[in-house]
Amino acid sequence: MPNLKQDDNALCQVLTQAKVIAVVGHSDKHQRTSYQIAQFLRQVGYTVYAVNPLVKEIDGQPSYAALQELPEPVDVVNIFRRCEYLPEIVDEAILINAKTVWAQLGIWHQPSAQKAIEAGLNVVMDACIKIEYLRLRVD
Description:
This protein is of the alpha/beta class. The chain has a single domain (4-135), classed as NAD(P)-binding Rossmann-like Domain (Rossmann fold), CATH 3.40.50. Helices cover 34% and strands 19% of the residues. It is built from five helices and seven strands; from the N terminus they run αβαββββαβαβα. It has a seven-stranded mixed β-sheet with strand order 3-4-2-1-5-6-7, with helices on both faces. α3 packs parallel to α4. The longest helix is centred in the first third of the chain and has 11 residues, at 33-43. The two termini are 25 Å apart. 38% of the residues are buried.
């Protein structure tokens, strides 16, 4: 299954079972999509960690420089970085035993998707986690 984006049951399962989400490229600017979506994920009950080496904290919460620095295991690595950063982010996700790599709308990198799948991770690319959450009426 290359991209779970086409499989509503699989997407629903990922979103229902996930508790901890790392947002890679989480901005501290309120007008940015990554900030707004991370806030949405917190509001609906997920534990959300910001991963952004350029920011020390966001709204009083620490921002981490890398996935390896997070204090607990991660279910979903939600990526707000350009395609060229996906290979290293996928490597980090594999290293920390994340369950799912989720690249936001417009972000797609087939070799990285393939690598994640071969390592046993779920892969969702070119899909907005908030849009899918609302569309699938996850509760």
